[in-house]
Specification:
Helix content: 25-40%
Structural class: alpha+beta
Distance between the termini: 7 Å
Number of strands: 4
Strand order of the largest sheet: 1-2
Radius of gyration: 15 Å
Largest sheet: 2 strands, parallel
Shape: globular
Number of helices: 2
Length: 73
């Protein structure tokens, strides 16, 4: 991101994106730990390579930017 800032919103109740992906015949995975991102993306890419829809729902805390703002970098 050019500005180093992240803008987002909270949706309540939180949709079950994994369930939605499966409802459309795809695969979905929820990731909550940074160390799990790469393996989840690899599984998603393998599913897409096999012709299947894939969704990876990332639930990660944003990192603090040096200026005190929020950054996802």
């Amino acid at each position: 991101m050019k500005t180093g800032r992240f803008a987002g919103t909270s949706i309540a109740p939180r949709p079950d994106y994994v369930l939605l992906a499966r409802a459309y015949g795809g695969t979905g995975e929820k990731v909550e730990r940074p160390g799990d991102v790469r393996p989840a993306l690899q599984r998603g890419l393998e599913a897409v390579g096999g012709g299947q829809l894939a969704l990876v729902h990332l639930m990660l805390e944003p990192l603090a930017a040096p200026d005190g703002g929020n950054s996802i970098a």
